[in-house]
């Protein structure tokens, strides 16, 4: 594979940055091909098939670095539906027959249809993908004493 000086500089710059990691692997593969390494050897070192090497090379030559990115729609489709999660999370659990004032990961897994069968950690990951962060409530100390704030200041750190 013959690389122009501009292509080589672009690949070397990206190899130093290396984000995302899967792109760095493809860039290093192309740099090795550009140095005259045989396809079979490059494929063996990076644990990919020769066909994969040819595929990545073709995509780079046709589309540049953008051709090496993972295309949208690839991979396993998520079971959890973001719109459904939002509909449930933004309402009180009591509206769905749960006698609580706040959602827990377990109750979300029981009530939200697309989260049925999820573990608590799976629900937390689905919430994160939907843009929500699960955070437990923290207990707060409150006193009816009118001088409470003054007294509290004596034993709390500034």
Topology, element by element:
Elements: H1 5-17, H2 21-34, H3 39-45, H4 50-63, H5 82-89, H6 105-111, H7 120-129, H8 148-155
Key phrases:
2 domains, mainly alpha, elongated, 8 helices, 158 residues
Short description:
This protein has eight helices and no strands.
- Supply the number of structural domains: 2
Helix content: 40-55%
Q: What number is the mean pLDDT?
A: 86
Say what oligomer this is.
single chain
Strand fraction: under 5%
Unreliable stretches covering 5 or more consecutive residues: none
3D structure, described in words:
The chain is built from eight helices and no strands. With 158 residues, it is mainly alpha-helical. The chain has two domains: 64 residues, no CATH class; 48 residues, no CATH class. The chain starts with a helix and ends with a helix.
